[in-house]
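anyone seen this seq b4? input:
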Amino acid sequence: MIGLGIGWRLTQAGCEVDLFERGTAGRGASWAAAGMLAAGLEAEPGEDALFTLNRESQTLWPEFAAELEQASGMSVGLRREGTMMLALTRDDASRLKFTFDFQRSLGVRLEWLSAADARLREPHLSPRVAAAIFSPDDHQLENRFLVMALAKAFRAAGGRLHEGATIDAVAISAGRVTGLVEAGNTRDADVVVLAAGAWSGEIAGIPLAARPLVRPVKGQMLALQMDRAAPLLRHVVWAAKAYLAPRADGRLIVGATVEERGFDESLTAGGVLALLEGAWRAVPGIEELPIAEMWTGFRPGSRDDAPVLGPSGVEGLVLATGHYRNGILLTPVTARAIARYILSGEIDESIRPFGLDRFQRSCFEARREQA
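predicted toks r here
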């Protein structure tokens, strides 16, 4: 998603762009995601800069989606019913009230719902629901449509997409990028953008100081099949141990585990059980639904679980990785900011807090404190 978005913006600006994908474009974390655009309900204490970036990108989405649909000729399934976050016990309700107050203090538009109000909006919620938050500005889209639309728009704008291409290394000479080594052959390039998601730290040829420390964070997910004419849910619903995202085709996406398991692709009984139990506690009616699909994905997590964006310290090597849970949400702002940096050398203020140098600064400060 990130690489396609940047590539599309650069081809629109008249650049010659080659995008190399080890498999099929968009079939990694972008395909595995749930497509939620939840800048408001994702806001957490201590993440002010990330919240600002998420919020900015969220405001870009309607125009970005409309432009992409026009360029690709296909829908990205943007839905604007809003998102609900549930409390299933009194203790949950107390914690939810803290979340509500904190996010409102940031300017997030939220409504506090009683149990009755929540079930009025979603009649199939559990009768045990104690309270809920409703966020009218947190939406969702069909991420699988989105990656297909971006690939189509990228190609239509003149971009060259190389699928099934394994990059051996980034070619660097005298402190400057000269190209990529692909299948033993060097392809010349003025600029290389590293947007390889959870695999970004494994690309050879990049000096250690310029290499983003990005790790895979495994997520197991599944999809249930609702009656398309009478779906159990209309809104995205977050419960304590699962979220549920209804799709227009009747699928109900249920996710997602958060596991530090490396690139382990296995589905586990415990992971699937936890998701189903969490979803069932929120919406008991899922018990009768057939399982349509189950899968795993790998979120690209940095050391602070925020994106790594902008210059790398190596001339011509630009970083756009580490988006963790927010890759879909941050696609428009990342594409805009990275394209702008490549074209003009200017760093958007919105991405300045997310440079690679923040880790270098934190290490320096830690050493100074120890001294």
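The longest strand covers residues 215-225. The chain has two domains: 2-75+142-213+303-370, 83-137+216-301. kinda curious what u guys think
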